């Protein structure tokens, strides 16, 4: 089966970059990305590539090459479904915020709506590809809807989970460690899998394209993210121990990572992992295990989340204790809001929770992030519902100049490892701050020796923390 037209429903962080790369590598295939969000589609169609709704290094060049040739962005979902032989579902599957499974299970509302829309619009047989992260056995539900609500057309459901990481999405898509295609083990299922394998084979070596049954594919995605998040929580747990001893978590990470059985990646201690996938996928795994009565398995994975929450909270508490146990009315500069560098995505970013903790203590925050908008930062805080939007606006200032963020502050908290932070003129920043100038590096990546030479009191994850000076001593100094 040769595919000439693809449709992708959902023009987000996954759908947009993935389809741009498929279009670039397969110029003979027409790729149409559709979304119900008009503003998003307008962003993807914007002449000015700086306005693309997703920031990813290298993405603008790929979009520029393929857009208008064989890559199209549109809100006409039905037309794209009708025309395509293969339809990717790449809509959001956030954690449920209501009802049964609230706070844990994935909300499959949008997936179901997509399935119903495909069934209603399709006028011929289709291959439907699940790209969004989904709980195991979702394909079964999608197939059920397609088979029972359509006009007699045949549907093959494939699972093709995305393993790209934000910030390196283009690299990951161009040279993936593996591509996973799961499908039904029937002749029709194998034919559909082959059609998708043939698309990836235009640029991915065949031995890196793995085919499995559909359930293994769905579960592999959750498991991969759970294992990666577990490594971060594991090193973060050790970071707390390092702070009490004279061990240094970077040295411990380097030493254990040199063991080829462990490997060096994902051993960077931090203020806590964020992103749209890790927490959501683990919660999903935990929910599924509980539903099957696998209590020990569920508890085991849940601990990864608990450790992460602990890491975020103790970073905020550490700031408060070093500011003499009160941050009330004090200006604290926050550098970075995105959940990692090189992305404008803020979903589940540790910065949100650290900020909320400090705001509960009546701190005044001044936030700077090179890629995140003011509107997004306020949305993230408002979404927590801890205080009214008006209160958030009053307590939080968002600026476009990092020097202004730090000026007159009592402390700086570094929440994202943006490269540009290393190149700032820290002498100027130091002299513009209130003394003693304190800096809390939640990413363990600045040059602390240099900062201390300038005069900063620096605190970082996983290195011994100087004792808090008694308040009296500070007053007398
Ligand atoms: C992740 C998976 O890596 C990717 O394969 C999957 O498709 C989606 O989920 P992503 O969330 O985009 O990707 O970013 P990732 O690089 O995995 O980082 C996740 C979080 O962990 C970030 O907040 C990052 O700062 C943090 N992290 C990562 C650490 O704190 N330490 C590390 O050593 C690595
Ligand atoms: P991800 O990180 O998984 O790509 P995003 O939230 O960035 O998630 O993107 C998902 C996109 O899917 C959003 O732009 C949303 O508007 C779109 N979407 C959700 N439901 C539908 C639907 N039924 N039809 C078309 N687009 C949809």
Automatic annotation (TrEMBL):
The active site is at 277 (nucleophile). InterPro entries: 6-PGluconate_DH-like_C_sf (IPR008927), NAD(P)-bd_dom_sf (IPR036291), UDP-Glc/GDP-Man (IPR017476), UDP-Glc/GDP-Man_DH_C (IPR014027), UDP-Glc/GDP-Man_DH_C_sf (IPR036220), UDP-Glc/GDP-Man_DH_dimer (IPR014026), UDP-Glc/GDP-Man_DH_N (IPR001732), UDPglc_DH_euk (IPR028356). Belongs to the UDP-glucose/GDP-mannose dehydrogenase family. Its EC number is 1.1.1.22. NCBIfam families: NDP-sugDHase (TIGR03026). Residues 333-448 form the UDP-glucose/GDP-mannose dehydrogenase C-terminal domain. This is UDP-glucose 6-dehydrogenase. It catalyses: UDP-alpha-D-glucose + 2 NAD(+) + H2O = UDP-alpha-D-glucuronate + 2 NADH + 3 H(+). Catalyzes the conversion of UDP-glucose into UDP-glucuronate, one of the precursors of teichuronic acid. It is an enzyme of class 1 (oxidoreductase). Pathway: Nucleotide-sugar biosynthesis; UDP-alpha-D-glucuronate biosynthesis; UDP-alpha-D-glucuronate from UDP-alpha-D-glucose: step 1/1. GO terms for biological process: glycosaminoglycan biosynthetic process; UDP-glucuronate biosynthetic process. Keywords: NAD, Oxidoreductase. Pfam families: UDPG_MGDP_dh (PF00984), UDPG_MGDP_dh_C (PF03720), UDPG_MGDP_dh_N (PF03721). Transmembrane segments: none annotated. It comes from Anditalea andensis. NAD(+) binds at residues 10-15, 35, 40, 91-95, 132-133, 166, 277-280, 347. GO terms for molecular function: NAD binding; UDP-glucose 6-dehydrogenase activity.
């Amino acid at each position: 089966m040769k595919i000439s037209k693809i449709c992708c429903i959902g023009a987000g962080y996954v759908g947009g970059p993935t389809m741009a790369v498929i279009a670039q590598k397969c110029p003979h295939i027409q790729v149409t990305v559709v979304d119900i969000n008009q503003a998003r589609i307008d962003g993807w169609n914007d002449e000015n590539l700086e306005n693309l709704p997703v920031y990813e290094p290298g993405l603008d060049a790929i979009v520029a090459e393929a857009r208008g040739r064989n890559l199209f962005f549109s809100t006409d979902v039905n037309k794209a479904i009708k025309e395509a032989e293969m339809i990717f579902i790449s809509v959001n599957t956030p954690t449920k915020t209501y009802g049964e499974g609230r706070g844990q299970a994935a909300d499959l509302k949008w997936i179901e709506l997509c399935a119903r829309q495909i069934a209603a619009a399709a006028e011929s047989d289709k291959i439907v590809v699940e790209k969004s992260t989904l709980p195991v056995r979702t394909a079964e539900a999608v197939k059920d809807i397609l088979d029972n609500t359509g006009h007699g057309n045949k549907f093959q459901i494939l699972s093709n989970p995305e393993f790209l990481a934000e910030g390196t999405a283009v690299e990951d898509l161009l040279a993936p460690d593996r591509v996973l295609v799961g499908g039904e083990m029937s002749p029709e299922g194998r034919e559909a899998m082959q059609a998708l394998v043939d698309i990836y084979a235009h640029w991915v070596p065949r031995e890196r394209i793995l085919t499995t049954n559909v359930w293994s594919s769905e579960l592999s995605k959750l498991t991969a993210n759970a294992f990666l998040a577990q490594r971060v929580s594991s090193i973060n747990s050790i970071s707390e121990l390092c702070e009490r001893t004279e061990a240094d978590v970077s040295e411990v990470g380097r030493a254990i990572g040199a063991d080829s059985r462990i490997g060096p990646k994902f051993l960077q201690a931090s203020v806590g992992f964020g992103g749209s996938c890790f927490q959501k996928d683990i919660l999903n795994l935990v929910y599924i295990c509980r539903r099957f009565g696998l209590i020990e398995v569920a508890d085991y994975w849940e601990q990864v989340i608990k450790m992460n929450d602990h890491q975020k909270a103790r970073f905020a508490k550490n700031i408060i204790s070093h500011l003499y146990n009160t941050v009330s009315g004090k200006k604290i500069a926050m550098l970075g809001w995105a959940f990692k560098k090189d992305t404008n995505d803020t979903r589940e970013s540790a910065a949100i929770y650290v900020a909320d903790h400090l705001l509960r203590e009546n701190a005044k925050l001044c936030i700077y992030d090179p890629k995140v908008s003011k509107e997004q930062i306020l949305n993230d805080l408002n979404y927590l519902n801890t205080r009214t939007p008006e209160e958030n606006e009053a307590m939080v200032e968002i600026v476009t100049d990092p020097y202004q963020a730090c000026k007159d502050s009592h402390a700086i908290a570094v929440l994202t490892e943006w490269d540009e932070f290393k190149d700032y003129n820290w002498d100027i920043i130091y002299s513009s701050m209130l003394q003693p100038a304190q800096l809390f590096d939640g990413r363990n990546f600045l040059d602390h020796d240099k900062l201390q030479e300038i005069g900063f009191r620096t605190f970082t994850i996983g290195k011994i923390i100087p004792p808090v000076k008694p308040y009296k001593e500070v007053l007398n100094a």
